[in-house]
Amino acid sequence: MKTAAIRIRLTFWYFAMFATAACLLSIASWWMLQRSVDATEYHDLQERAEDVQLLLLNEDPNRSIDELRQDFTQIYSIKDDGKWLQVADQDGRWIYRSRRMIAENPELPRPEQLPKMGVIAEFHQGTRYVRILAYPIQVRDKKYSVQTGIALNKSMALLKSFGADLLLLTPAMILFASLGGHWMSRKALRPVALLAAEARCINDRNLDRRLPVPQTQDEISDLSNTLNQMLERIDKAFASVRAFTGNASHELRTPITLLRTEIEVALIRPRDGEEYRATLSHLHHETVLMTRLVENLLSIARADAGAERVNLQPIDLNDLFHRMDRDWIDSMHLAGLDFRTEIGNEQHQALGDPSTLPRLLSILLENARKYTPAGGSVVLSAVNESAGIRIAVQDTGVGISQKDLPRIFDRFFRGEQAGIAESSGSGLGLALGKWIAERHGTELVVASSPGCGSSFSFTLLRATPAPLKRASLPYLLEDEEEIQA
Ligand code: ADP
């Protein structure tokens, strides 16, 4: 629809421009022709007046007016039947009047009343259209008025036929140009129409399809490339949403199947209270893991949708470490691990989000517990550095292979750590941890080698009374007010 409208508009503009140009050109050429015809006629008339002047100059100055009349009659009546000519001296006495002039009897002003260039007048005489020029001449010390005329029929016919030709040609040219404009706009917009038709065929099931890119290196190929890049991004986003949904369903199916099987087995026959207690306790453990998985899934989905927000504010790391110690010490001991928190004596006030920062530490501590065999140790530490406060979770566990290292932050990625029986993870913990660290303006970095343990660390900004510099933390601007408060 849009293409048609643009095409019609282009045709219309082309028509309007061409019609205006053609009309202006026609009017200008007609006007120029008329001017040059007028100038030629004027020069003819002027030359004839000057002929009279020459004649008078050759006359004897002592000749009387009657003798002059005789001379003029003799010359002009033979020459060209006098045509349109009358000559009078400065006292208004006629020297010569042709028959045609007498018949029309136009007024001939005295020479001193005439301007230098003369005066032009026109009249019809029979079938002729006549232009006359009253022109002042001077011969020795005497002045004369000469009025000479010429039939304009030839030049009028010329102008008329030229005008008629223009009237015929101009609309034909405009029509031709409009058709040309229409054809050109169709041709110019054809690739756009083709692109639109191709784009209409692309839907959520064939997002891998791409639009054709013409080899012309023009706006159309630029548009095709831009649309293709956009399709690429949409395709990737769709693929990642699909993968996330698929992985999430898969992750949920396993524990649910486990729960179902366990309940079905328990219901096969009546059992004593102890057996039911054991089954229920196992079911409880499974549901706790499931709850954690669903929480992680929700957090990632909310983070993708932009709904999960962090609210940075000063946090006392001593308090936070104390809480972590209290929450994790039992489970670490149960796993046969030595767990310590190390924090200097100085005040550790860092900028952090009170709800997501503990979660990040829990993710790292849980991994350390899971991937460290009994007898090992886990240390949560905070060290003051020039860039801020570096927080690290270090274990003496199985470590991560070089092959797995680049992938551990990918969603649903799980490494195959030898010797670790418990595989309660879903591969979402570090993905979420990475996102939380990024929202704190830092990066979660890992240093690990197989058999030597791992260390995950990130750096938090120190909470100082001075306002945050915008340039240093651009993506935290929305939280800035709360930070300063
Ligand atoms: P999971 O729930 O499987 O632990 P994570 O995203 O937290 O998922 O971790 C991804 C993978 O990174 C783990 O499967 C494991 O292979 C590796 N990993 C994470 N933390 C550690 C660690 N402290 N020691 C060894 N391997 C780890």
From TrEMBL:
EC number(s) in its UniProt entry?
2.7.13.3
Sorted keywords for this record are: Kinase, Membrane, Phosphoprotein, Transferase, Transmembrane, Transmembrane helix, Two-component regulatory system
Q: Which reaction does it catalyse?
A: ATP + protein L-histidine = ADP + protein N-phospho-L-histidine
Q: Which CDD domains match?
A: HAMP, HisKA
- Which residue numbers delimit the Histidine kinase domain? 247-464
Domain HAMP: from-to ranges: 186-239
Q: Where in the cell is it found?
A: Membrane
Q: Which parts pass through the membrane?
A: 12-33
Example GO molecular function? kinase activity
Database matches in InterPro entries: HAMP_dom (IPR003660), HATPase_C_sf (IPR036890), HATPase_dom (IPR003594), His_kinase_dom (IPR005467), HisK_dim/P_dom (IPR003661), HisK_dim/P_sf (IPR036097), Sig_transdc_His_kin-like_C (IPR004358), TCS_sensor_his_kinase (IPR050428)
This protein's major location comes to membrane
Q: What is this protein called?
A: histidine kinase
